[in-house]
Amino acid sequence: MRFQGLLQLRRCAAASCASRHLNTIVTAAATRRLASSATALPDFTQKSDHVQRGNYATLNDKDVAHFEQLLGQNHVLTEDLDGYNICFLKRIRGNSKLVLKPGSTAEVAAILRHCNERKLAVVPQGGNTGLVGGSVPICDEIVLSLQRLNKVLSVDEVTGIAVVEAGCILENFDHRAKEAGLTVPLDLGAKASCHIGGNVSTNAGGVRVVRYGNLHGSVLGVEAVLANGQVLDLMSDFKKDNTGYHMKHLFIGSEGTLGVVTKLSMLCPHASKSVNVAFIGLNSFADVLKTFVNAKRNLGEILSSCEMIDERAFQTAMGQYKFLNAPIAGYPFYMLIETSGSNGDHDQEKINQFIGDGMERGEILDGTVTGDPGKVQEIWKIREMVPLALIEKSFCFKYDISLPLRDFYSIVDVMRERCGPLATVVCGYGHLGDSNLHLNVSCEKFNDEIYKRVEPFVYEYTSKLKGSISAEHGIGFLKKDYLHYSKNPVAINWMRDMKKMFDPNGILNPYKVLN
Ligand code: FAD
Ligand code: MLT
Ligand code: ZN
Fold it and tell me: What residue ranges carry the coiled-coil annotation (predicted)?
């Protein structure tokens, strides 16, 4: 009987906390290794991409002495800077000679005041897990690392509002929220390394947007330091606050180009008592779509995630990481559907019924459902390891696009055809519930031939379908030449004007977002 598999999995509840622990270690270690590996360093981007250095001053000994006096010598780094200069994908490499680690908003303000007066360029950096080259210098910008601003300042279990410093690691923040019975409404594969300030600055999406919406809704207030050192206090403890322009939104997703986020308040929902995950195999993308529509219709109020993984993405992760434990295999498409609610029996009955109905109609070929926390983590790990598997041994062109659902997957087939044997893997996965596809094209190493087949085609294709060329990762350095595919010239000009107003000397994260 088909459901036998489901029941078996539910009964096999052993090793649940071990699995949770493994998840954290694997993700943190993998992200660190990938970010700082000394092998195969990329060329300096300024040289390889012929970047004209902006009209900035050059750092001198007096500047370094000034910063040492301000922060203390321990928090001013001038050696072993590769981990700060090289992006997570090992695609962008800057040549910064200085990393500053302020420990308070006042110190961030003093740093920026000095840099603005001296016209020294600065790149704000969180966990350096960004995927568009936004978090590393392009030339010799000073790296302003938020690592030391890492405290959760308060978590109020009555209001659900947490106040946190920008450099707090997402997973640590979530652990603190959980102690108060709450959850951070944002979850993503890089949670063990990324900072909440980095998440806000990229308006990171992740796997629960379908339930909680994006950060523009959850972030109630921000504190940001402007290029001239002024502290802009936009903190708020209320969901509703219509006092003039909603300026906090400018710092959500502006990728460190308008200010440095130092603190924020976030509305955290109550943690769900009952979480179930279904991992199902399907035959076609048409069946994936039908299943998504049915999930919305029948799981509506408890649906908390709806992810899709195609066969090639699944196989790449499974082939790369032997510790992954997949309950099913051998299908063209997989979906991970999560429910979160308050009544375990009710939620399980609903999700079992949903899977059973889908199987009867032949839309779902096989699947497992589990509410066991360890097994839930094991299934999530399959999804989380896909991006790491794709870059572990290969060069990977990564695209993060919003597409209308009916055309969601067609670009993967088209791209496979265009790349032919030049690519080792062309695959699609991502946040189906938000119409956000991650199209990935891997090859042994970067080469111009495949690059030209992929870009700008991928952006033209997306633009023709009125999609977005960046659903969640942002524009950074890698996509700035393509911004016009998603934003019209009038909008781009207003963005430029805003940038000039906030940062007249252009010291904050130059060479990013705008040309
Ligand atoms: P960084 O990479 O350090 O910086 C990102 C940008 O924000 C840069 O432009 C930087 O200058 C700026 N910045 C950082 N901190 C500040 C600050 N305090 N003030 C002003 N500017 C700042 N993204 C998603 O949206 N959804 C996902 O599901 C997702 N999954 C991922 C999975 C993996 C394995 C990896 C490696 C990345 C993933 N990402 C995802 C991409 C990335 O956007 C997120 O990891 C995260 O939001 C970046 O946070 P960070 O602290 O690492 O920021
Ligand atoms: C994800 O959803 O896994 C991330 O956004 C990373 C990626 O695009 O690979
Ligand atoms: Zn994503």
Answer: none
